[in-house]
Amino acid sequence: MTTARTTPYQELESRFERLSKIGEAAGILQWDMATNMPTGGAVARAGQLSVLKVLRHEILCHPALADFLDAATADRGLDAWQRANLAAMARRRARAVAVDADLVRRLSEAGSACEMLWRTAKDKADFAIIVPALTELRDLVAERAAALGEGLGLDPYDALLDGFEPGGRAAAIAPVFDDLALFLPGFTDDVLARQEAAGPPLDLPGPFAIDAQRGLCRSMMEAVGFDFTHGRLDESHHPFCGGVPEDIRITTRYSEGDFMPGLMGVLHETGHALYEQGLPVDWRHQPVGGARGMVLHESQSLMIEMQACRSAQFIAFAAPRMAAAFNGSGPAWEVDNIHRHTTRVARGFIRVDADEVTYPAHVIMRFHLERAMLAGDLDVADLPGAWAEQTRALLGLTPADDSEGCLQDIHWYDGAWGYFPTYTLGAMAAAQLFAAAVQARPGIPDGLAAGDFTPLVGWLRENVHQKASLLSTDELLAEATGSPLNAEAFKTHLRARYLA
Amino acid sequence: MTTARTTPYQELESRFERLSKIGEAAGILQWDMATNMPTGGAVARAGQLSVLKVLRHEILCHPALADFLDAATADRGLDAWQRANLAAMARRRARAVAVDADLVRRLSEAGSACEMLWRTAKDKADFAIIVPALTELRDLVAERAAALGEGLGLDPYDALLDGFEPGGRAAAIAPVFDDLALFLPGFTDDVLARQEAAGPPLDLPGPFAIDAQRGLCRSMMEAVGFDFTHGRLDESHHPFCGGVPEDIRITTRYSEGDFMPGLMGVLHETGHALYEQGLPVDWRHQPVGGARGMVLHESQSLMIEMQACRSAQFIAFAAPRMAAAFNGSGPAWEVDNIHRHTTRVARGFIRVDADEVTYPAHVIMRFHLERAMLAGDLDVADLPGAWAEQTRALLGLTPADDSEGCLQDIHWYDGAWGYFPTYTLGAMAAAQLFAAAVQARPGIPDGLAAGDFTPLVGWLRENVHQKASLLSTDELLAEATGSPLNAEAFKTHLRARYLA
C-alpha cells in the first residue's frame, strides 16, 4: 500500500516485512515436515517450499529494490538502527543478485540428489558410490562461491562462510584454530588421565520411560525460562529449534537407554530459543531485528547447555529432579556422580556425540578439508584418506569405515559448505560471554544452583538478544566482554571445569 | 520462467500453479493453527496468513492475467479440460477483481472483530451485545455481494453462494427447500412415532478410553480407504478436513462419554478426504483439477457417513469391532442395537448435533434468514425473534436462549454468508449418487457389510472424483445419475431407512 508520503526507507521496511513473513511460513512448513508430515506428502511440500523460496528471491532481486536502497542511503534522517537495517538489507540483496537463478536451481537439484544418495552411502558405509554426486555438488558450490565472492568482494570460501556468519573470515579463524589444535591434544590427555585416575562414574540404571523424559525436559525448559505459551517441544529425527519468535518449535529425540542426550539436546535448543524469543519486538520482521549470525546463535545454545546446564551449580539443582523423574535413588543419582556424567570426556569418531573438549578437533579438521576441496587442492575421491589422516592427527584415532568417518555429517552432501567453523567459534563466544556475565552479575552461579536463570538470561537479553543485528559479532562481543572473539575464555573455562 | 515459446494458456497454468501452492502452504498453516499452535503464536500466524492471502490476490488481479486470458480464449487448440480450466481461471479472476482491496480489508477486520465478540455473546447467551458488530458485518457483506453481483451479473445472494458452489442459484434452491419443508415435518412425526413404539435402544456403557477411540477411528478410516502414507488424523476443537491431496489432515474431537460422535465425525471427514485424494493428478494445481464445489464436497462426506457408514450393512461389519475396541459385550453391543443408535432421530436445537432427517430444517431456516437479512427485509436486531418463529414452524421447538438459537453457528459472525444451503444440497446429491452407484454396482452393499469400500469408492472415483471441476454440478450429476440435482433420491432414502 505505497502512498505518496512513503519514504524509500519505509518502502524497504514494508518489502522486507513481507519477505520475513513468507520466510516464517516456510519455517513452520519445515517444522511440520520434520515432525508431522506423512511420507507421501514430501513432493507436495517441496513444491510449496520452492514457491515460497522463489517469492522471496523475487522480492530481493526486484529492480525497484536497488533504487529504494540508493534513495534510502542518501536519507540523512535515519538513526543507527535504521542505518544498520539498511546495510543488512543491502547485504541480503547483494547475496541474492550475485548468483544467477539457473545456478541456484542446479545447486538445489544437485543438493537434493546428493543428499538422497548420501543416506544410502552412509547406510552402506560406502563413500565410493557418492563420489560423482559430491564432486558435481562441490563444483557447483565452488561456482556459487566464486560468483558470490565476485559480487561481494570476498574470497570464495569467505563468501560462503559470510552467509552463515556475516563478517566471518577464514584468515581470522585459521590462526585461532591452529592455536586450539596445538592446545587441545595435550589438554585432552591431561583430562583423560585425571578421569582415569578417578575411575568411571556409576552407571545410571535405565530404562528411562519416554513420557518421564518428556516431563523432565519440559520442567527443565521452564526453569531455564522457556515460555510454553510461545512455543512447543516435539520429537523429530534430528533435533532443531525452528518456528518464529512468538511460536518457537523445539524438537528432540529420546532413547529409553539414556535420558541425558535427549535432555541436553533440549537444553541446547532452549538456548537457541531464548535468543529468538529475546529479539527486539520493535524490529520484528526487519533484517536488523534478526539474530546476528550462527556464531552468536551457537553461543546462546552452548551458553545454556555447556556453560550453565553442565555446571556443578545447575546439576545440584537438576540431579534430585532427574532422580525423581525416574524414581532413582542411591549413589548413582547423587549430584557429584551426575555431574561426572555431564562432564565426561572421551575421544570418539562422531562429532555430534563429542564433549566440549574434543568437539573443536572435529570442527577444525572439517574446516581444513572443506577449504581444500573447495580450492581444488583435495579431490573429492581422496576425502576418506585425508579424513583419516586428520582424525589421527587431531584425535589420535583411525575410523574403521566411512560411516564413522567422512559420511557422518549431512552438511557437505546437501550443500552447506562454510558452516562448520561457527560451532567452535560459538563455543568460544559462549565462554567469553559467560565469564563476562558472571563478572557483571556475581549472583548468576547461585541462581543456577537454585534453578533460577533470571540473572543469566537478564544479562543475555540486555547484552546479546536485544542487540539483534545492530552490531557486528566482534563489536557486540567487545561491548559485552571487553574484547573481540578469541579463545582465551574458552581455554580458561576448560581448565577450570576439567583440571581444577 | 516465461520463454518465447510459452503460449498464453501455458503462462496461465504456470501462474495458477503458483497460486495453488501458496494456497496449500496457507492450508497447512491453518491446520497447524488448529492443532498445534501455542496461543502466543496467534498474531504472528495471522501475519503470515495475511501475506499469503495478499500474494494470491495480487496474482489474480495482475493486469497481465487479463491479457493472457483474452489471448488463451482465442486459442483454437485447447481441449475440453483446458477450456474448462480457462473458464475456471476467468471465474476466479472475475471474483477477485470485482471487490476492491479496501472492502476486502474492512471485511476481514470486521469479520475478525465480530467473530471474537461472538464467542463472548455465545458464552453469555446474549445476542444484544453483538448486534452492532453483526450489523456492521452484514452491511459489509451486502456491499461485497452487490459488488460481486455487479461484476459477475448475478443477484447479490447468488454472488455469495456462487463462491462456495459455482452455479448455485437461490431461485433453483427455494422451491426444493419449500418442498422439503412440507415433506419433512410429517415424515419426522411418523419416524418418531415408530421409534417411540419400538422403545429406546440400550445404552452403550462408557466411559470410552480416548486411546481406544483413536485406534478404532484409524482402523475404520483404513477400511473406508484412507491412505495414512498420504494423511493424518489429529484432534482440534472443531473437526475439519484440511491439508493437500497428497497430505490430507483430518481432525476430530473425542468425548469419554460417547464414542459415536467422534467416530462418525471422522468418517464424515474421511469422505471429504477421499474426494481430495481422488482428484486427477494430471490437473493438480489447476483450477479445473480442484473439487467442483461445496455441494459435491458435502455429498462425499455424507456419502461415507450417512449413506454408507450408518447403513445396516456397514454396522454389521463395524459393531463387533466397536465392541472389541471397548471390551464391550452383551445385547447393547449387538448389531441391531448399534444400528438403532446410528439412525436415531430427534428434534433438537443444535444443527451440528442433528440427524439426517431433521438436519434440513436447520438449513432451510438459515437460508430464509440470511437472505432476508442480506436483502434488508430483516434487521439484525430482530434475528432472535425471527429465529424462534422459524424454529417453531420447522421443528416445533422454541429455543430457551440465543446460545441454542441464533448464536449457535459461527458462519454469519465470521462473514460466511451463502454457505448454509450447500449442506442440504450435499445430502440430496449424496442420496442421488449412492442410489446410482448401487444400481451400477450391485455389490456395493455386500462390500460395506464386509468392510470393503472398493466397489463404492471405485464408482465415486470414476464418476465424481476424477471429474474434478470439468463439469457443472448438475452436468456431473446428470451424467452419473441420469438427472440433475433433486430431492427425490433423498426422500426415497429417508423412507427406506426410517419407515421401511
Q: Mind explaining what this structure looks like?
A:
Two copies of one chain form a homodimer. Chain A contains 20 helices and three strands. The first copy, chain A, is mainly alpha-helical. Chain A folds into two domains: 98 residues; 399 residues, Neurolysin, domain 3 (Orthogonal Bundle). In chain A, helix 5 packs antiparallel against helix 6 and helix 14 packs antiparallel against helix 15. The longest helix of chain A has 29 residues. The model of chain A has no long low-confidence stretch (mean pLDDT 96). At the A-B interface, helix 1 and helix 2 of A face helix 1 and helix 2 of B.
The helix content of chain A, as a percent range, equals 55-70%
CATH class of the largest domain in chain A: Mainly Alpha
What strand line-up does the widest sheet of chain A have?
1-3-2
Class derived from helix and strand content of chain A: mainly alpha
Cα-based radius of gyration of chain A, to the nearest Å: 23 Å
- The number of strands of chain A is 3
Largest sheet of chain A: 3 strands, mixed
The multimeric state of the shown protein is homodimer
Terminal Cα separation of chain A, in Å? 63 Å
CATH topology assignment of the largest domain in chain A: Neurolysin, domain 3
Largest interface: A-B, 36 and 36 residues
Q: How many domains is the backbone of chain A divided into?
A: 2
